[in-house]
Amino acid sequence: MATTTADNTTRNKRGEAGHSGEADSREATWTMYSFFCASSAALSAFNNGYNIGSPNAPELVIRACQSVDISKRGGTFPGCTPMSTGLWGFAIGGFALGGLLGSFFLASPLMSRIGRRNTLIVSSIIYVVAGLLMALSPVPAQLIVGRIVVGIATGIGSVTAPVYVGEVATIKRRGMFGSLIQLFLVVGILVAQVLGLVLSTAAGWRLLLGLTIVPAVIQALMLCVCVESPPSLAARGRTDAATAALMRLRKGYDTTAEMDAIIESQKRNETDGEASMSMIQLLKSPMRKIVFIAFAIHALQQLTGINSVFFYSTGMFTGAFGAETARAVTVGIGALNVGMTFVSSALVERAGRKSLVLASLAGMTLMSLLVVLGSIFHQNVAVIVAVFLFVAVFAIGLGPIPWLILPELFPTKAVGAASSMAIAVNWLCNCCVSLLFPLINEGLESYSYLVFVVTGAVGFIFIWYSLTDTKGKTVEQVQAELLGHSNAAAADPATSAATIRTEKS
């Protein structure tokens, strides 16, 4: 293939910028600027967590007008917006509905057209609009619309932020940088729950919901001094800009080899008709079996009931302990979630992915059963202990692994389509739990967590028989184990053949 003038110019610029004393950027651990860019993107996850946790504590103030003098209602912004249990469930579930719309329909087109960084800035602007809608809502309808709009911003960020973080991270610390997403998310939940202790009042709840504007504005300002990711620039033909961005991200290192690898990867994408598979192509390929496994893992993350705790725990505990104690318990749950996230970061690289998912499912199923028994026999302390352990075992497996396992299940050409579909399934199941749990809890009362006992048990059996452990294995080895050599060869002949040759040798 002939080398173009532009290619020569780009290589010369890289060669002039680097000098023989600089180490290869592929061996870099991290740089301050790359960490700053990754943290800027991870604020999307913080806002995600904040909007999961913010409606929990003030639920009874907002919808049941608890501690609000109804006789003084009136004016532009009344002290509460009365709504039924079902309507409140729709307000909470609207967040997940918006997340589904943002992640499945908007994130990918925006990233392709305007880049990762600008897409995150767009999501920050949408957060500001949503915060104003919620804080200034005079009626339930506007509050619900605000929850849907904030979900759209979150859906866009939930797809874009991990991609941007992965593309600006150094090769050697991609896992560490990626863990920022989960860490920022659980910290966002905790911050919302702590603020809920003091802002669950007739005037305070509007401020609590509207504060989502603050991290959005901070993120937009931080992103203005961040570079676009080099692969995104290269994909849009801006090779010189990609080179300059990578040099800034890897200051002090020679970026020549890393940039050459990015350019070669883009050239393969342009010349290989199957370098990037569509969703339809993926579902028609032999890899559809693995797609359904990915769907199941993401569905189980939600259908085992974790958001019944993060969305509704204050309302659940208020009857037994009173509003103040219930809010304190909710903050304790959030703090435990943050602590266990650090534990899971250590465990995930030592234990197998499959074993941690199975441990999560077994523990959550058992704790759901304990919640039911404690509720039937009015053992409130047992219920609280069970809920705390429920969150703890979720955090070590089903919390982080559905997100990190996708690139380990699918080759590069398929991971984009697989991620979009799996995340959409995640949001859809999130929406179902958010919408239906208040009605389930109202109808089944003490037996409501039996639903999660069933889904956890069924999920445990499915994962036991269908998933192989991916720890320490190449994608090709995982595909060969899940599909068999013949089907793996049909899915990706070159890589599968390489795997077979390696095993024979």
Characterise this structure.
The longest helix is centred in the C-terminal third of the chain and has 33 residues, at 412-444. 77% of the residues lie in helices and 1% in strands. Residues 1-6 and 493-505 have low confidence and may be disordered. Helix 23 crosses helix 24 (493-504). The protein has a two-stranded parallel sheet. The chain has two domains: 31-68 and 75-226, MFS general substrate transporter like domains (Growth Hormone, Chain: A), CATH 1.20.1250.20; 275-472, MFS general substrate transporter like domains (Growth Hormone, Chain: A). It is mostly helical and 505 residues long.
Can you describe this structure in just a few lines?
The chain is mainly α. It is 77% helix and 1% strand.
Structural class: mainly alpha
Provide the CATH top-level class of the largest domain.
Answer: Mainly Alpha
User: Helicity range of the residues?
Assistant: over 70%
Using the CA coordinates, give the radius of gyration: 24 Å
Order of helices and strands: HEHHHHHHHHHHEHHHHHHHHHHHHH
CATH superfamily of the largest domain: MFS general substrate transporter like domains
Count of discrete structural domains: 2
Note the overall shape: globular
Number of helices: 24
Uncertain residue segments:
1-6, 493-505
Described by strand count, sense and barrel closure, the largest sheet is: 2 strands, parallel
Reported CATH architecture of the largest domain:
Up-down Bundle
Strand content: under 5%
- CATH-defined topology of the largest domain: Growth Hormone, Chain: A
Mean pLDDT over the residues: 86
Strands, count: 2
